[in-house]
Each structure stands twice: as structure tokens, then as C-alpha cells.
């Protein structure tokens, strides 16, 4: 369904209010401008929203549309922050414009490109799409990927950390694994051994899945063998004890 930008803005606000903030709906008194320019009628005619007393409610038929709008906006924020290095404080306006350019179908390619992120840069959940959890197609391009999804020799810089357990986040931060840190996967065995800065660490698959890496141009190059690879095994043993 093709909707105007302003209609999608209302759906996005309704989703936030009802699904994330625990409110019943939006106050109609705050939507006078949308009533006057016909935006509200644009949503009411197909039954996406409905009025109930002083409130505007999200109708059951409008839930999928609202969910998709929120998903596109937060994917746009993730793309701008992780790939284009737009500062967090400057994300909102360009993300609002960019989300309207993400046609249905294209958003799935963007999601795959970013490694199927679960949260936006502000920490809000990104509603999953059909592509999330599915096996990627051969030839699909990825710019951001979890450390767990890398092959030995691939690397880049940490884009963001995504751990549901606060204790996992504390471990990663304590190891100095912060956004911007250069990383490269060295070995996949019982542990995931990787280089971060001048140190090497070993973590399990669960913790590796919490580290998202923006791949660099040399991501396909194998890691050099010899003394360079052996350097830092003391750090690895220390990290294993810490974890």
C-alpha cells in the first residue's frame, strides 16, 4: 500500500506509543494538522487506524503497515550510522527521508547487507523481517556482519555491540572491544580466536555473535602465518580466564 510520508509518520508514532510505551493510542488533539491536510483520512479510509473518543488507535489491519514503517526507519538509521558514519545526534532527519526510499523488498536487501541487526543505534528493537533468520543467497553483499559470521582472515572495525545480557556487554567492554576497534578473525574452533588492536582473544560463539563488524576492503585476505599469528597468545589465555 502506497502511503504519503506524513501518513507513515503517524503509523510510526502509533507503533511506538502502543507497542513500546504501553499507551492506548495518540491524542487526537495533537493531530490537528494531520486532520486538516487529509492525512488522517488517508489512514482511516483503508481501515488502518480508528478513532475512539479522544484517541487515535492503531487498527488490527494497520499493524503490519506500522510495523514495516518502523522497521524501515530503524534500518535506515543503522545504515546511516554503521556504513556512512553519520553521528547519532544527526540521524533522525536523514533517516526519516531515507526510510521512504526503502521500497518493500529493498529493505530486505539492506537488512541482509547490515547483518540483520536487532536494534537501531538508539537501542530500540528493529522488527524482524522475512529475511531475518533465513540463509542468505549466494552472491549477497554484506557490509556488516557478526564476528561469528566471519571466516578466518576476514575483518574490519567493530560497528556496534548487540548483547541482550548486560553481563556479556560488560565483558566485551572490559576487554576493550568498543566501536571503531579493528578486528580480524584468526581461527574457528572450540573458541573464536580473533585479533583486536594489538591483542588476541578467544570467545565462545554466543559472545562472538554479539560483536558486529563493518567489513573492510581486505576482508577476504587470509591472515599472515608465522610469528605474527602466534603473538598475543598470552592475551588469549587471559581472556579465556576472564570469560
Feature tags:
disordered C terminus, SH3 type barrels, 243 residues, single chain, Arc Repressor Mutant, subunit A
What does this molecule look like?
With 243 residues, the chain is α+β, with helices and mostly antiparallel strands. Among the domains are: 60 residues, Arc Repressor Mutant, subunit A, CATH 1.10.10; 98 residues, Ferrous iron transport protein A (FeoA) (SH3 type barrels, Roll). The strands form two sheets. A six-stranded antiparallel β-sheet has the order 4-9-5-6-7-8. A hairpin with a 3-residue loop joins strand 6 and strand 7. Helix 4 crosses helix 5.
List the helices and strands and how they pair.
Blueprint: H1 5-20, E1 26-27, H2 32-36, H3 39-44, E2 49-52, E3 55-58, H4 63-82, H5 92-99, H6 106-113, E4 144-146, E5 155-161, H7 166-174, E6 182-188, E7 192-196, E8 199-203, H8 205-208, E9 211-215, H9 227-230, H10 233-242
Antiparallel strand pairs: 1-3, 2-3, 4-9, 5-6, 5-9, 6-7, 7-8
Helix pairs in contact: 1-4, 4-5
